[in-house]
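quick q for whoever's on today - can somebody do inverse folding on this one?? i tried earlier but teh output was garbage lol. tokens:
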């Protein structure tokens, strides 16, 4: 793992951050009276590569100090202070319009960055905030209940988020906060005792746990005698009676096996199960902690807690003395901060839980558990809809089983490949790899490429389209780029070797355009790490793919004799630009959890 303080060769430069730094210094020198001047720099859509827009806000700040100055004049004074670093990175600047500064980058600097990729690979950006302990709480299905498409979204977005944090060199802990504790286990265990009386000695063949759940729920609702036994079972379980613990474990195992199937297929690794049951004792502790601080109020037999800003209270203890989802999340937050030493905790659930997390964070701040040292984010996402824009269900109105959904993805991916007659050009093994790549890739990418705040329509037809920003388009674009070396009769080894001997020069306008885009990778990564919107990465990838096509259409890499098809000339520098592009895309795929293939 790369440390945050690793030498610069291990990290890539964020041009945006460098420019912000430059202009900060220049602005402070030009206007020493303004403390911590605003320094907005962004990618330019008109003149230059980047644009500095700091002159306008300074007008107001100066005015407040009784100084009147026009924005253009301010911009001129700032530009006059730009230090000599200008010579390495910035080719020229020009003051435009009402006081923007257009910044033109040096070609040699862009070339240097691209060659850095070839020499050292795609390295993480220099991370201004250093290395952090990051807890990512994701997937988190509930035992004996359906693992539904909402959990699929949480799994996909959470896994990518954790991958991104890994790439940045953070110390990442991936936690699966499964719902494995609570009163529903009373009825499940009572039902288990009736259905499989010898469950302690013989593993019960529960089979369909969802059906088992429904059966026990029905009895619980209809049979008062059963209900009574269910309550007794909860009490026994909570007092850690061996027989009841055994039953609980067996039920959890059945669920666990189902969850694992989904994780294995989606290639989700290092996800540590730490369900609600883990916090049993810690829930007692947190209740005591909050009681000692006099933060709990009686409310109709319940114990509740109000935060400072959130209107809704937490229910910390129910009237029957039991604990709730709120209690376990307070205990978990305390544990993660104090035992795991988390600097940053990220929760992935549907947007419907936003108020729950607001209340948790609010109360934890009030109780002094959460301080400004720890960053917490609830990363919410919209609901998954079917193609009819209604709640995602099977035709017969049932909840869609995730395993069935993944199976359908596999089938559709194979259809897609045979439609293109790929079975003729690929070996059976290559075909199988391509099928997997497309199936899981399209499900993940469709989710990740949309703004997660929006609701999301699940449609295999849409996700398998090969036009537009889809997995299929991106995966094909990647294989196409990878095949250019092969077209020049270069082996993968030849290409790898050339990375240390060849250099890229970006003479052609389209080469330069592509090079500039590739060098934006570090700033894109930092932006996503801050805002936690992964669709920004998909948009970047799509732009890379289309900009690559522009370059490839305009600049030959391999020249072949029209008649014989023989390779006449190979432009190695350009092959290296293709290689750098492929490496950037490969890193993006890795972060998103997609597995591209060399042939498709
Ligand atoms: N099990 C919950 C659900 O299915 C999600 C848990 C999310 N994590 C947490 N710490 N609350 O809705």
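ok took a stab at it. sequence:
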């Amino acid at each position: 793992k790369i440390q945050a303080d690793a030498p610069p060769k291990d990290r890539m430069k964020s041009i945006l951050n460098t420019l912000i730094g430059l202009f900060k210094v220049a602005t402070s020198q030009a206007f020493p009276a303004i403390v911590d001047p605003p320094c907005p720099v962004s990618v330019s859509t008109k003149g230059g590569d980047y644009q500095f827009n700091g002159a306008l806000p300074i007008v107001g700040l100066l005015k407040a100090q009784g100084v009147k100055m026009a924005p253009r004049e301010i911009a001129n004074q700032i530009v006059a202070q730009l230090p000599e670093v200008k010579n390495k990175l910035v080719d020229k600047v020009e003051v435009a319009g009402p006081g923007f500064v257009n910044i033109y980058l040096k070609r040699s600097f862009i070339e240097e960055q691209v060659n850095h990729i070839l020499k050292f690979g795609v390295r993480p950006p220099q991370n201004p905030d250093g290395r952090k302990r990051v807890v990512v709480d994701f997937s988190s299905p509930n035992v004996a209940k359906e693992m539904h498409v909402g959990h699929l979204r949480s799994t996909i977005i959470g896994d990518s988020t954790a991958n991104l944090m890994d790439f940045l060199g953070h110390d990442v802990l991936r936690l699966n906060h499964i719902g494995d504790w609570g009163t529903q286990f009373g009825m499940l265990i009572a039902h288990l005792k009736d259905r499989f009386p010898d469950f302690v000695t013989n593993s019960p063949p529960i089979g369909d746990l969802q059906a088992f759940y429904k059966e026990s729920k029905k009895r619980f609702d209809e049979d008062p005698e059963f209900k009574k036994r269910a309550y007794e079972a909860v009490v026994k379980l909570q007092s850690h009676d061996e027989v009841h613990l055994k039953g609980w474990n067996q039920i959890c195992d059945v669920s666990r096996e189902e969850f694992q199937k989904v994780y294995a297929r989606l290639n989700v690794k290092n996800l540590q199960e730490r369900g609600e049951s883990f916090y049993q004792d810690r829930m007692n502790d947190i209740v005591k902690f909050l009681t000692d601080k006099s933060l709990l109020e009686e409310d109709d037999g319940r114990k509740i807690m109000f935060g400072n800003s959130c209107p809704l209270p937490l229910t910390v203890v129910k009237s029957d003395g039991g604990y709730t989802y709120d209690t376990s999340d307070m205990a978990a937050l305390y544990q993660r901060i104090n035992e795991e030493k988390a600097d940053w905790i990220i929760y992935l659930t549907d947007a419907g839980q936003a108020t729950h997390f607001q209340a948790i964070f609010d109360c934890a701040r009030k109780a002094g558990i959460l301080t400004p040292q720890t960053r917490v984010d609830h990363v919410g996402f919209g609901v998954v809809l079917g193609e009819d824009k209604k709640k995602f269900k099977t035709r017969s109105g049932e909840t869609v089983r995730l395993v069935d959904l993944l199976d359908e993805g596999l089938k559709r991916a194979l259809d897609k490949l045979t439609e293109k007659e790929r079975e003729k050009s690929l070996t059976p093994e290559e075909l199988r790899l391509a099928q997997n790549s497309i199936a899981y890739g399209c499900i993940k990418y469709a989710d990740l490429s949309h703004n997660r705040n929006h609701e999301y329509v699940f449609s295999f037809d849409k996700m398998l389209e090969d036009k537009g920003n889809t997995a299929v388009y991106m995966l094909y674009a990647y294989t196409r780029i990878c095949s250019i070396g092969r077209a020049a009769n270069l082996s993968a080894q030849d290409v790898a070797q050339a990375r240390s001997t060849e250099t890229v020069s970006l003479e052609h306008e389209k080469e330069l355009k592509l090079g500039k885009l590739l060098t934006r990778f570090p700033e894109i990564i930092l932006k996503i790490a801050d805002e936690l919107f992964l669709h920004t990465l998909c948009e970047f990838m799509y732009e890379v793919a289309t900009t690559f096509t522009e370059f490839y259409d305009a600049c030959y890499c391999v020249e072949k004799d029209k008649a014989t098809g023989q390779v006449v000339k190979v432009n190695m520098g350009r092959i290296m630009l293709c290689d750098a592009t492929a490496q950037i895309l490969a890193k993006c795929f890795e972060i998103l959890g997609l597995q591209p293939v060399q042939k498709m």
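fwiw The mean pLDDT is 94. also The chain has four domains: 8-105, 133-179+274-384, 184-267, 402-592. so keep that in mind when u check it
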